[in-house]
Amino acid sequence: MNSNKMRVGVIGVGTLGKHHARLYKNINDAQLIGVYDINPETAKKVASELNTKAFQSLEDIADNCEGFSIAVPATDHYKIAFFLLNKKKHLLIEKPIASNLQQAGEIVKIARENGLIIEIGHTERYNPVTDFIDGKINDVRFIEAKRMSPYPPARHGKEPRGTEVGVVLDMMIHDLELILHIVKSKVERVEASGISVLSSSEDMANARITFKNGCVANIIASRVSEKSIRTMHIYQPAKFISLDYANKTCTVFSKDNSSIQKEEIPIVDHNALQKELTTFVSNALSTIQTGKTAESKVSGKIGLEALRLAVKITEEINKHNKKYGINDKVYSPNNIF
Description:
CATH architecture of the largest domain: 2-Layer Sandwich
Mean pLDDT: 94
Structural class: alpha/beta
């Protein structure tokens, strides 16, 4: 066992978790110790493919690792994070941080009190497109974001992936976190609507957010689309920036006297999830070696604020539906403070 590497494990090795496990093996400072899944056969299959160990229990894998990726359904984030944080483990938790605010707040509190790293899996912050806009935008007046995908495939004995929560917590929350990062202003007002189509909660949602600095963001999310779309348009005086997170392209339109100049920005591509995992390992190792908690790019506090806004949007959808006599179900996190 290499003491210069962080011993990592992955909890939940379904669609996304198996990629976490695979990519950890490519990180120089990480040593993948093993995986755990509630389905032992899934764990064994992934462990065999990656030449690692399939642990039989959460307790067993916890005793052998210093840090973990948690890639289980959102409704299970809290119980696993609570268990591992109390064992002094560093965590990368897939978004959302938890399925309600009380649980999210407790996760942040325990990590802070114990000097532990928690990184929340808002992977778009590591998308190479985001590298361009960081530090290069100012006085943003309006943002339009669209995130759409086909409905997730059926799974034997389980809900389709992500549908344990509504589309706001499943998909829109990516854009909410990005927009909070870009605008850097408090929210003044939220208007929202949404409907269920195929699942037991909202599958389509639209939100209009007005910030205290006057910026307005309009966001559409759908998991019942014919094709996948992940775009964002950012408007500021004399400039319009068009971002495509899926195709990793960025175009800037600028006013030049009486004409409009179009500039295609060269994007240096990289694997966003790989970069996210590498950053998590680096921060956790630094914390272990120095005793000083490193600063996460998407910390638990940031994940909590994104969830807080997402919860507000679900509340507004429920108000809208009640006002107009719409009986569609909307995912409503409990224990909100």
